[in-house]
Amino acid sequence: MEDLSKLSLVEQINGLKSKKFSSIELTEFYLKRIDQEKVLNSFISLNENALKEAKKSDEKIAKNKSSSLEGIPIAHKDIFCIKDQKTTCGSKMLENFISPYSSTVYEKLSSSGTVNLGKTNMDEFAMGSSNETSFFGSVLNPIDPERVPGGSSGGSATAVAANLCSFATGTDTGGSIRQPAAFCGITGIKPTYGRVSRWGMIAFASSLDQGGIFAKNALDAALALENIAGFDEKDSTSINKKVPSFFNQAKSKDEEHVVGIPKKIIEDIKDDNVKNNFFESLDILKKSGVKVKEIDLKNIQYSLPVYYVIAPAECSANLSRYDGVRFGHRCENPKDLDDLYERSRAEGFGEEVKKRILIGTYCLSAGYYDAYYLKAQKIRNLIKQSFMDAFKEVSSIMMPTCANVSFKLNSIQNPVEMYEQDIYTIPANLAGLPAISIPSGKINKLPLGIQFIGNYLEEGNLLNLSNKFQQNSNFHNE
What we know:
By secondary structure, the chain is of the alpha/beta class. An eight-stranded mixed β-sheet has the order 4-6-5-10-11-9-7-8, sandwiched between helices. Helix content is 38%, strand content 13%. Helix 2 (23-36) packs antiparallel against helix 3 (50-62), helix 7 (218-226) packs antiparallel against helix 17 (459-471) and helix 11 crosses helix 13. The protein contains 17 helices and eleven strands.
């Protein structure tokens, strides 16, 4: 039998259809890998029905009744609710929460025939850039276990990079798909805000959160993304637009590209290795026939402070529902209602979550709302307009995914330094734009990623550009 660890998603689908191997064999292979790599701590829980799901897929394939992703074993970030299964969001607050319903992302992938292997570890309530804030312990980077895999979707990134699943779901609020993808040397895409339903995806910052995909390469990501995208009437922010075949767009030779290079941002890159890698990646694109143009992204330097006003403000509102009354952790023997609220939340939330709730509550409080939250929203509009002006001249924008390679566990104690990890990824979230990170090289065996940001609903164009890059390089196969 073929080496299943080396097969792409497309090759796995073809192998299942041609009966080179079965879904049960593929699922058993991944379950064995997960058990062998327990030390990475990439999973919070495993699906005890995975082999039963694989058997059903094999029966459908045998009867030629298979769906688009029939029999493909995948992993879900533990932020997506699955009915009658535990959904923790990496928090003690939801340690024993059994969801009464399933998220739209899970439902879509389940109806496409995927086999759910389990739920991946994550920063608590998706708050973090290193996957060190999870109640269930830190996730380790499979390339160097002394380093972080990035966050908040580090469990999903590690699972794909370590060959523990075919592909995985993730969420991206300020870079939580793209940054771990870069740190783990894989492909990660965050689509346009509203392209993928947020129904059943536990909220952190509602105007920024977006579900997406981790995969081995751009073609795999395209195929997975088209199976989770689409309008959902249960989500009021969902975009009612037909979903094209991202896979066909990614392979197309008709797509034209003019890539914008934000001159000031690139000049200001502090790490010489990151800067050199950026220009080396640019050379690969130019050799692929891609046109390049320098642009000016005004107001982009305000992205970080704007994000760290808006995201905590929305988080403080969203997390107010965890009060020890309706669901989630409840303290023992409360004296009165105030004691119930205070102790349940103090015991249930971790330090990073508490910190962001406090910042957010302050920004929304009387006398400070106009000075902080309202002003941040105005600057957010200016950032969005900067992108719109740029897209009049270019089809996408290229910049590094991260300012550095993966850092060592527990090496960053300063919260501001940790927040700066998202300096290149946050702007796309503030503007609601699609963005993708792909592997672009290595420094001392540690992966680097480059990022492409596209115009609204132009995921296909980004995937095509990424596929072009990957056809002319081999970083995604290393």
